[in-house]
Recover the amino acids of this structure.
């Protein structure tokens, strides 16, 4: 898939080359993410060293070649990974340390939609916010890809999970993600607080409520700002709770940080994925060559979980 | 010292009683802090269990009695401590685990002005923001009590310290706090960034600049909001730096958290205080009975370091 002046065209590119520590992967599925839509609009350029014009931040597929220093994967293995770009293609280069083994019972479409949102949610909840058993977690924007991952990871970790969902039609889906999940209208969330950890996937308009519902020593992770970026923050409220506001994105991180995030996710989440305790709801799949329709579906909103391109 | 309808009066109170693990201390010096002025105005009530009407968040003095379970201090010892209130008095109760030994060569006035600002700065810089050797530190509002402590602790820890001071008359004093300290006009600070750690002692108006000068993985600690509490925070900028904004206050913390902060300060800073590598600049001292004049001097601003009441 190639971005040409904001349009998506299916064009031939030279095959990527696997370096010493890389896998070459025949892509079977590649999830769509908000970053792809931003990149298409020219707002989220690929980092240096990544294909500048081929979108795709995650993929799943079969290993078709390995570099000479690769130790943990072999030709024929099913893998999935977050990539810096170029995932929405027939072939992609994946550094071995960024690759995750796809469990046997996980279908390609689910695997293609797993890495980006589960890495983002896992990193924000556990690595950044130290979510632990018994913590009161609030996920704002829980029906989207990262939200669906975060709600499930929170349940898995023994947190008390409240999820806000704007669209009433999506609330039953979110409630079904795990035992004990409380689904709330965003306007009513204060009745369910305070929260030790708040995952903010909506943006600036939520920050005043986030601060008002933060527990002592609470942590807010801002991962999505689709509804706005300029937030009003009452610093006195932040001081009174000894609170923390963190912002984060995955894509610009260093190779080693991405490897560390992938290894942490492999250790903490792949056993649960293999056991069926984590799942990737897929709203719709589209063939890679019909990416424009997939992007339009994503932009239309109201989806639950992931939209995935299949190869 | 007693707060009576916003005025300060020297009144007799019953002597405090030392519990099993407490020291009874004859106060020789008690530093003033912004919190005292807020408490006098009714804006910063004492926490439960502390004298509601006797101000004073820190003190130094001689131990005159000890509870039966006290192990580390004895009658006659010189001690200093952060207290939840009641420091500006002839006698004060200090939990043993909150007390710090006053080094031999440190005068009472300096000791009385040491605990609150050095605990606040040490906790913010090291415990909360993980300041370490080589980090680029910016202290906004560096001529005040916490600022003077933070600049010195930053130099001691091998950080590269930039200090902003609004009043040009105070800049030479701040520059003399340590080798290599860069003193900047607040309006010019961007020329000295980016910073790994920003200690914000001024408040909301600085936040946009704080975010614009934050390094990747940078940490902002908001400890003072005298210039305003409602900040505009660009969440996109926070995400791009994977930045952190923390708010904090010492006073409402639990007994154990205050003990941990005191023990950390004793371990990390008392040797340097004893060696003369940390100092407490005292602008003026006033007898306890003349507290009103001391509070007026504090409120007038433009001081460098501490104002201390002496007993």
């Amino acid at each position: 898939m190639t971005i040409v002046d904001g349009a998506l065209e299916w064009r031939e590119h030279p095959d990527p080359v696997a370096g010493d520590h890389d896998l070459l992967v025949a892509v079977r599925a590649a999830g769509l993410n908000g970053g792809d839509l931003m990149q298409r609009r020219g707002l989220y350029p690929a980092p240096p060293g990544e294909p500048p014009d081929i979108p795709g931040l995650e993929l799943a597929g079969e290993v078709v070649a390995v570099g000479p220093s690769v130790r943990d994967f072999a030709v024929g293995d099913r893998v999935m990974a977050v990539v810096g770009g170029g995932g929405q293609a027939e072939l992609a280069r994946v550094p071995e340390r960024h690759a995750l083994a796809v469990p046997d019972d996980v279908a390609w479409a689910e695997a293609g939609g797993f890495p980006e949102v589960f890495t983002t949610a896992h990193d924000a909840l556990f690595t950044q916010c130290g979510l632990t058993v018994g913590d009161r977690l609030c996920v704002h924007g829980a029906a989207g890809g990262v939200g669906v991952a975060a709600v499930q990871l929170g349940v898995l970790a023994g947190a008390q999970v409240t999820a806000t969902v704007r669209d009433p039609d999506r609330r039953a889906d979110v409630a079904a993600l795990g035992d004990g999940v409380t689904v709330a209208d965003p306007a009513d969330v204060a009745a369910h607080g305070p929260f030790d950890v708040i995952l903010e996937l909506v943006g600036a308009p939520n920050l005043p409520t986030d601060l008002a519902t933060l527990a002592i020593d609470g942590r807010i992770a801002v991962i999505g700002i689709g509804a706005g970026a300029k937030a009003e923050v009452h610093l006195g409220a932040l001081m009174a709770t000894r609170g923390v506001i963190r912002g984060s994105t995955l894509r610009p991180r260093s190779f080693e940080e991405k490897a560390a995030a992938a290894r942490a996710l492999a250790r903490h989440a792949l056993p649960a994925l293999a056991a069926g305790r984590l799942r990737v709801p897929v709203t719709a799949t589209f063939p890679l060559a019909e990416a424009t329709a997939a992007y339009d579906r994503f932009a239309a909103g109201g989806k639950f979980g992931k939209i995935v391109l299949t190869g």
Observations:
- The two ends of chain A are 11 Å apart (CA to CA).
- The first strand of chain A starts at residue 2 and ends at 4.
- The mean pLDDT of chain A is 95.
- Chain A is about 25% helix and 30% strand.
